[in-house]
Write a structure and sequence with these properties.
The protein is 33% helix and 20% strand. With 256 residues, it is α+β, with helices and mostly antiparallel strands. Helix 5 crosses helix 7.
């Protein structure tokens, strides 16, 4: 019974248009839902539809759709509070419970609440790592075009973090203005929005988990940010560059 529970006030069932209306389509669109009805006082104080993604979660058990406030943690979604979300406190959602079926190429970032696969948005030295348009240029050779629209925000996040890292490490080109530092609010938002491509989460789900100590702590958030621009690849390239420079220096040193 892992995973999130959702509640929309005033409904007896849930249709795609309902998910779109309250802003849940990016998280739950296309998922098969187990739906129940709360006829008394639900998470928002009145009746409504209670539902959860199915068929099963990582523990192999079907989602239990029931409102039992003593055994659950609930929050009203921000920006109008058109829905509520919660989870069973005895078995809070873990990454495997929330995983999408076709994740992007990723690096694993461990945390006390589970290991999260953070998508690589760009290669530090080769540009985007995301699906993009390809066409033939005037010379007949393939040209990489724009990133597909659905990945545009993730691509921008990768560029933003890479620019911040370059400023931090003193890697800016001559005369290039440094990007503003990424504060804790922006870091949290970027990581949550990036993980939404591999998991059925948004900033709302991430924040509920974080309030209960089930999200990425500060050091893991930093690691996740740096996965967006392929920090492991950068470190390997930097190590190779230093090794080559040392080898060249040794070769140029006269033997005694």
């Amino acid at each position: 019974m892992a995973g999130f529970l959702y509640f929309i006030p005033g409904l007896k069932g849930v249709a795609d248009d309902d998910l779109r209306r309250v802003g849940l389509w990016p998280v739950l669109g296309g998922a098969s839902l187990a739906v129940g009805e709360v006829t008394g006082a639900g998470p928002s104080g009145g009746p409504g539809a209670l539902f959860a993604p199915e068929p099963v979660h990582a523990d192999g058990k079907a989602a239990v759709v029931a409102y039992q406030p003593d055994d659950q943690a609930w929050a009203i979604a921000p920006k109008g509070g058109q829905y509520c979300l919660g989870f069973w406190t005895a078995k809070p959602p873990r990454p495997d419970d929330l995983a999408r079926p076709a994740p992007l190429d990723s690096y694993m970032v461990p945390s006390p609440a589970g290991d999260w696969c953070v998508p690589v948005a760009r290669h530090f030295d080769r540009g985007t790592a995301l699906p993009h348009h390809v066409y033939l240029g005037d010379d007949g050779k393939a040209v990489e075009g724009e990133v597909l629209e659905r990945f545009a925000a993730l691509s921008a996040h990768g560029d933003r973090v890479w620019d911040g890292f370059r400023a931090q490490e003193g890697l800016l080109d001559e005369g290039e203005a440094p990007a503003p530092p990424i504060d804790a609010t922006e870091a949290f938002t970027i990581v949550a929005e990036a993980l939404a491509f591999n998991y059925r989460v948004s900033v709302v789900e991430a924040n509920l988990l974080a309030r209960h100590g089930r999200w990425l702590p500060s050091d893991a958030l930093t690691a996740a940010l740096r996965c967006l621009f392929d920090l492991p690849g950068w470190l390997a390239a930097e190590q190779a560059r230093k090794a080559a420079a040392e080898k060249k220096a040794r070769a140029g040193t006269p033997s005694g």
